[in-house]
Structures are given as C-alpha cells and as structure tokens.
Protein 1
Amino acid sequence: MSERIHASEEWITIATADGPMRVFVARPPASQGPTGAVLVLQEAFGVNEHIRTVARRVTEHGYLAVAPDLFHRSGIAELRYDQHAEAMDLIAALGPDAVLADTTAVLEHLAREEAIPAAHTAVVGFCFGGRAAFTTATSGAKTAGVVVFYGPGVAAGPHAVLDRAAHIDTPLLLHTGGQDPTIPADHIAAIDAALTRAGVTYEHHVHPEAGHAFACDARPDKYVPETAAEAWRHTYAFLERVMPPTHA
C-alpha cells in the first residue's frame, strides 16, 4: 500500500511484528538510481517535516531514503517541538525489542522490494533515533554502517544498550555535543570504552560548543549551523566510504 506525494516521494505501509507501520520513502533521480539505502530514524517528535527534509537531502547524494514511523504503536504520527513531555512518554515506551522489530522489518522490505540488501544500507538516527540507530547496530543485521547524532539513553537509562556493544559488526560514526546535558562526559567515556573493548570500528566526534539537537535546523534555539555542516560533511564521507558508488 502506498500514498504518493509526488514523483520522488511517497508514504508506504509495511508489516511489522506489532502491526502495520507507515514509512516515508524519498528516491534519488531515476537517472542516478540508488547506490544504497539510508534508514533515517526520527527524533522524539516523529517523522515530521524536518525528518522528511533530512530524507530528501540524503537522496541528493544518490541514496534511497526511508524514514519509518517508530511511533506507529501509539497512533501518534507527529508531535510539535513544544510537546516534550508527550514525546518523552512515547520514547519511554519503545525499548530495544520494539526498535529492532521495526528496523528489521524495514531492512527486510528493502531487500525484498528494492533489491537493496542490508550490506548496502546504512542507518542514520537523531536524538531518540540515535539511540534506535545504535540499537540497530547491535542486531547482527550487518548493515553498511550506522551514524548516531546525539543519541541519549545509549549508556544509561531503562533502554540502555551499551552492554550489547560486543554484538556490533558494522562501522559506527557518532556525533555528540560537548554541551549536551542528555549525554554527559561520563556517558561519552563509557561509550568509547565499550566500543573500543568490543573492537568496533568507530569514529566519535564530540563537538565542544554544541548542545543537543545541534543539527536540527527546524529548531533555531538548538541549531548550530557550522557544527551541523561539519557533522554532515563527516557523515556523507562516511556513507560514501561504507557504500561506495556501484556505477562508474
């Protein structure tokens, strides 16, 4: 089932272990063809216009972009940025098993319907989606790579997954704001120690002057343009490295 918006993007619905889930799909120009796929995992506010815009930007680099509605169990598709309390309730209800059920369903859909295997698919997540991206890295799915933008709750909290680091078999790129109160210095140190101990190939860029959500240009009070641009330069270089172009 699909709901087409215009030629290059649409909403589709895929089956998951917990019922149907809507997924926003943005495609690169047909003349390019996708060189791989990128799962864009939402902040705590749903697959809103900002996340859809991120997906569209990803297609400019030749990737098929898919943004699954990880809130599908709640029936709430989007929240405003001032609905922080409601957002915290929604993400508190989504533990690792639910996240993996959803991302696994998307990876299987891409392999089956788009002929893009996990090995040619990367995961990029923001805020709650950063935690979800890190969680996906522990699944054994052997994705091409995972990028975590300011993902709180990885090292501590009810859904922490740092104890699963030994299961990570994909390269990681992490972006953390040095002024982010949701990921304090001891969490940063714990993440680095666990990844190093597990032998994970990773880069962790701690941006000293940035806080939480520094790459979200829909939130002027959070957005740090120079830091966001730097983080995206590193991200696209990482994606090109782990998913090199398949065409000449």
Note: The chain has six helices and nine strands.
Protein 2
Amino acid sequence: MEEEKFSLSGTFQKAKEYVDTQIALLRLKALAKGSRIFGSLVLDLTRVVLTLFIVFFCSLALGFYLGEVLGSNALGFLLTGVIFFVILLLIRLFEPKLETIFMDITIRKIASKWNEEEDEAAEEETKTDENEKFN
C-alpha cells in the first residue's frame, strides 16, 4: 500500500470548494424561501383587489337600494358615504390595536412560509428514519 501524502494545497482546494458549495446552497435556499413569500404576497394582493371590487359593487347596490327607499339616489349614495365615513372613524379610533393585530398576522404568515421548507425537510428525514427501521 502506498501512503498518501498530505497536500496543503489540496486541502485548501477542498475547503474552497466546500465554501463555494455552501454559498450556492444558501443562495438557493434564500431564493426558494423568497419566492415562496413573494408568491404568498401576490396571492394576498389579488385577494385584496378582488375584495375591493366586491366592496365597490356592493356599495353601488346599497346606494341604489337606499336611493329607492329614500326616494332619491343622491340621498342613497350620501347615506352610503356616511356609513363608510363612520367605518373610517372606527378604524381611526382603533388604529393602534388594529395595527398590532395586522402586524402579528403578517409576521406569523411570513414566518410560517419561511419555516415551511424546514418542516418539510424534517418530515422527510423522519419518514426515511422510519423506513430504515423496518428494513
């Protein structure tokens, strides 16, 4: 058997390859997590836009309905505007509490998307360990 000689340059080369591989892996993980979060944000934005359309058309319907009940479309839309103004005042009144609630919801949602990949990897590892026990 021949003895392998220790090569310092070979060790540095392997260390450099390892570091490069780890950097590439971190970039891919960040890209995967970022794209998952971006996709979630796009879906949430789509939901918000569609909800705004629904609110808009329901507001029109309410305005016309109240206009018929009151005998004047102008009064119907004025009353609809007053309803939205009252809602706006309530939001303004409870703004600090609402802001905290929405911040918590947003942080939880993004954190769950961020950790979802790690949970999936842990589940796969558990399944692999269970399969090895039975083999």
Note: The chain has a mean pLDDT of 86.
